[in-house]
Amino acid sequence: MLNSLKNFLSTDHGVHEVTKVKKEPKSFKWKEIRREVDNRNSLKPFYEVAKDFLPKLGISNENIKYYASMVNYYTVYKLKRMMQLIVYTYLLCFIFNRYQKISNNLLNGLIYQVSNFKKEAKTAAKETVYNKKIEFNRDLKQAGKVFDLFMDDDIPNETEFGEVRDTAFGYIEKDKFPSVINYIIKASFDEKEYEWDHIKNLSLAFKKNLRPIFLNIDIESQAKNDHLMRAVEFLQTALNSNKSLNQFKLNNIPKKFIPKKLKKYMYKTEQKVVNGKTRNVKQLDVDKYEFLIYLLLKGSLESGDIFCRHSTQFRSLEDELIDKEYWEKNKDKILDDIDYPRLKKPIEETLLRLEEKLEKNIAYVNKRIKDGQNNHIKVTGKGDNIKWSLPYKKLEDTENHSFYSHIPQIGIENVLSFVNKQCGFFEAFTHILGKYIKNDADNNNITAVVVALATNTGISTMGEISDISYQALYTTSKNFIRLETLRNANDMISNAIAQNPFFRYYDIDEGVIHSSSDGQKFETQIKTVNARHSPKYFGLKEGVTSYTLVANHVPVNAKIIGANEHESHYVFDILYNNTSEIKSERHSTDSHGKNNANFMTLYFFNYMFAPRYKNLRRNADKICGFKAPSQYKNCLIKPVRKVKRQLIIDEKDNVLRVLASLALKTSTQSAIMRKLSSYTKQKKTKKAMWELNDIINSDYILT
Description:
Blueprint: H1 2-7, E1 11-12, E2 15-16, H2 17-22, H3 30-57, H4 61-73, H5 76-80, H6 84-149, H7 161-171, H8 177-186, H9 191-201, H10 203-214, E3 220-221, H11 227-240, H12 263-266, E4 267-274, E5 277-284, H13 286-303, E6 306-307, H14 317-320, H15 324-338, H16 341-344, H17 347-370, E7 378-380, E8 387-389, H18 412-423, H19 443-454, H20 459-465, H21 470-480, H22 483-498, E9 514-523, E10 532-533, H23 535-538, E11 542-551, E12 554-562, H24 571-576, E13 586-588, H25 598-604, E14 608-609, H26 616-620, E15 624-625, E16 641-642, H27 645-650, H28 652-664, H29 669-678, H30 684-702
Parallel strand pairs: 9-13, 13-14, 15-16
Antiparallel strand pairs: 1-2, 3-6, 4-5, 7-8, 9-11, 10-11, 11-12
C-alpha cells in the first residue's frame, strides 16, 4: 500500500495522479460526472484502507479535513520532499475526504438530473395537453355538424346508415373520431400519460447521464425488505451484465415497488401471434420502468429511507449520531460535558414545566380577549359562530434621517485601517503553515485581497487596477485567506463592537440580545456543483445562498449553502457555531426558518425561537394542549389535540442522544436536522421530537 501511495505522486503523461483527483466537478454534466466516476474507481482501494486505518490513529473528522487541505495546499514537488509518514497521513486523509465528496457529488448529480428530466417531461406534457385542447376544440365545431345530421329533415329515413357515416367522416377524419368521442365524454386529458410518454422519448438522454452514476453508487436501505432496493439491485446487475431488460422474463423483473397509481403508465399493449392467433399482449415498457427506479430512488435518498455510508451528506440518521453502545455506557458523562441544564433534567420534570406554562398561557390569553383587554384581536360573530382575527396595520414608509446626508464618504481601505487600530483584526490572518515561514503578512495585500473577494472583483482585476501585483495578491490569498482566518478576524471585530456602550441600546428587551438569520441569493460567476437554478433570483443563470446570522445588527456568522437547500436546516448550525462573544437569547427567522424540530432543539440549548409568522391565525389553529380538546370548549383560541405525553417519556433516551449528537458535532448539524425534518419513516423518536416541538411552538404562538 505504501508503494501505491508513493505512485499516487507519480506522473502519467505529464500529470500527477493526485493532481487529477484534486479537481472537483464544476457541474453535473456528463463529462464532469464521468471524471468523478474515474476518480472514485482510482481512489476506492486507498479509501478501503483509510476508513479502517484513520480511526485507529484517533484523528477527528475536523483534523481529517485539515490534513486533507494540506494536499491541496502543497505542490507535488514539496510533498515529495517531506517526511514520508507525514505525506502518507496527509494523502490518506485527502483520499478519505475526497472519496466521500465524490459520493456526495454522484448522488447529488443523480437527484439533479432526475429532477431536470422530470421537470422537462412535465413541461412537455402540459404543452401537449394545451395543444390537444386547441385541436379538439376545433374538432368539436365539426362534431356539431355531425350531430346536425340527426336533425336534418332533408335526409330521408330510409337512407342507409353507411351514407350518413361517410358524410360524418367528411367533417371529422375517421381516425380522429375515437379521440373526439373520448374528449366529449371525459372533457379532460391524462397529463401524466403524456408525461411518461415524453420520458420514453428522453430515454437515450437519461440513460447516458444517469447510468454512469447509478452503477457507481453504494447504497443501502433502512428497511429489511425494501422492494425498491430489490429493483435497484436487479437493474444494477442487468446493466453490469450488458443485458437489455427486454431479455428478462416479466416474472423475473421486480415490480412490487411500482406505486398503484403509476402501474398503468408502465405497461404497453403489443399485438403478438400466439398459437396462430393475433392477441393483445401486455408488455412492460422497460424505458419507463428504468426511469421510475431513478425517480423513486431520488425521493428515497432525499427522505433518508435509502442511504450511503461512504458519504457525508447521504448517510443514515443512525450514522450521524453518537454510537449507540458508547452512548448507553457514557450517557451521564456526555451530558455533563455538554453542560446544558435542560438536557440534564428528567424529561418528566421538563414536561411538567411546559404543561404549567402552556396551560397558564391558554387561560390567560383567552381571559384577556374575553375581558376586552387585548386590543390587537378582532372578534366577530355571536354564539357558536364567534371568530377572531389579528389585523395588521401597514407601516408607513420612512426616510433616512437628514443627519446621515451630512456624513462624508470615506474609502473602504481607511475604514479597515481604522477598525484594525481599534481591535487589531489583521493579526487573525495567520499563515497556513503556522511556522517555518519566510514572510509575514502584509496588511495592504490582505486589505486588497479581502476587498477584491468581498466585492466580487477578483484578485486578477484588483492586480490590474492597483499597484500590487497579481502574484503578490495570489500568494497572500493562498497563504492567509481561508475560512478559519476570516472567521477569527470577523470575531475580533464583532467582539470589539460588543464592548462599545452603544451596543446594548439595540437589545430587544433589557439585557436580551435578539438575533435573526436569513438567506441572500447571489449569482455565481464560476461553475460549481453547489450552484443551482432559481428563475426568481437568477433568471437563466445559477447561484448560491449566503445564510447570515445577525445579532443586534452585527453580522456574527455566515454560511454558504446551495440555493436549493432549505434554510431551516441551518438555523441551529449557524447559532451553535457562532464563535464570537455575542450570544443571543432570542432568535428569529422568516417562514423558511421553521420546521418540525427547530423549536424543540433551540429550547434545549437555551435559545428562544421566535420566527416571524406571516399568518398567525392559520398557525394558531394548530396549537396543542395537555388536556382533551373538549375541556377547552369555552376558549376562543383553543388546542385542537392533546399532547402525547407518554410517547415523549418513552423516547426520552433517544431524543437526548440526538440532541447530544448535535452538541458534540458528531456530524454537521445541518445534516442531522435535514434528516429529522424529511425522514419519512414514522419512527417513534421523530414523533416524540415533533410532539415536543409542537408544545413549545404552541406556547410561543400564545405568547
